[in-house]
What we know:
five-stranded antiparallel beta sheet, 0% helix, seven-stranded antiparallel beta sheet, mainly beta, Apoptosis, Tumor Necrosis Factor Receptor Associated Protein 2, Chain A
Amino acid sequence: xxxxxxxxxxxxxxxxxxxxxxxxxxxxxxxxxxxxxxxxxxxxxxxxxxxxxxxxxxxxxxxxxxxxxxxxxxxxxxxxxxxxxxxxxxxxxxxxxxxxxxxxxxxxxxxxxxxxxxxxxxxxxxxxxxxxxxxxx
Length: 137
């Protein structure tokens, strides 16, 4: 049985995947970080592609997120191997093609995709971007 559920905390999303299936396309269930619902997509062709994007609705289409995050893949095949994408800073994400990570190392078996959101800002035409993770002391 496969699950497309993503476990979350306030700033972390974790998707556990068993790639023993022959599926070439997997999409996670939506998960909420900040005020947006997000999805992760896994595509297998020559490379393994990982996509991260917010679900844009009529309510939030005028204020897409500006995200700063770190994404990594932890693979358990042949020992524990971790691949880390360089930190993404202040990238506006509107659609499923705005963040794509092509992994050229073959991964099989079970692995975990971790996304740590360092900051999420609301984009607006009229105002300065505002952090969704306001710090209160």
